[in-house]
Structures are given as structure tokens and as C-alpha cells.
Amino acid sequence: MALKLYIYPHPVLRKKSKKIEVIDKRIKDLARQMLDLMYKHDGIGLAAPQVGESIRLIVLDIGKGPIALANPEIVEKKGVSLISEGCLSLPGLTVLVKRAFFVKVKGIDVFSKQEKEYKASGLFAHDFQHEIDHLNGVLIIDYLPWWKRIKYFLSLKKKSNLL
User: Fold this and answer.
1) How far is CA 93 from the centre of its chain?
2) Catalytic one among 21, 53, 73, 131?
3) Is 76 annotated as catalytic?
4) Does the predicted TM-score (pTM) go above 0.85?
């Protein structure tokens, strides 16, 4: 069954994701399908909640090859970086987001089932932080002032003819 991309304000995007206890065929297949969907939409990252699964799984590729991590966690942060971010679940929105410039991330590689550690800076670090935010129900819209959040929400309603 083909995955679908869940768009804000769908409630699944706000749920805190559950830890993955076993990496089985279903999780591996889900990771592969998430990578396919991410590439199809010209994205650089995707989290399981964005496809309706409230589990701690992310995929990303900023041109260094695909990564699929279960239960990722940031274990170290340094510095400050401002990068304009977009999100496949918030079409048409870009937000200047302040994040750590450098992160160290640990998780389980879905395909090898081995614990991996990544040291990332710049865009790579932003991508990890963005996708891990999704696992905690945090979206880039949360980095906007309240009045800009309302403006974006109203523009979505207008596009969908709900107003």
C-alpha cells in the first residue's frame, strides 16, 4: 500500500511518537517507502508521523546517501545556526529556524540493525533536529510568532474552501 503524506493540521503530526521495540520487515519496508516518498517530493528528510505512523523513525538524505534511523536522539549540541526551513507537511511555508549548528545523533540503523552515531553540522544538523522535532509533535510553524501561525492556518483553510 502506498504511503500518503499527512498535511498540517492533521492531529497525527502533534502526537509524541513511541519508541520502536523491534526492527522487523514492516519497519524496514516503511523506511524504504518513506525514502521513496521523500525523494518523490524532493525532500531531504521525513519522519514517520508525516506518513501517519506515531513511531520514532526518520529518514533523511542531504546528498550524502540515505539514512534511516529508529529511535534517534540528540546526545550533544553546540553553536547556533539560522536556516530557512520548509516542510513537506506544511506546503508553501518556510520559517527561519534557530537551531544548534552541530549535533551528535545516535540511533539504530534500520537496515543493518546496528547502533550508529552521526556528527552533523549546518544543514545536516538542521535536518536531524527538524525530523526529531516531528517525533515529539513539534513543527516548524511552532517557531513562528502566534499571529503568523494564524495567518498560515487561515491561508490553508481558504485554499481548501473551508472559509
Assistant:
1) 15
2) 131
3) no
4) yes
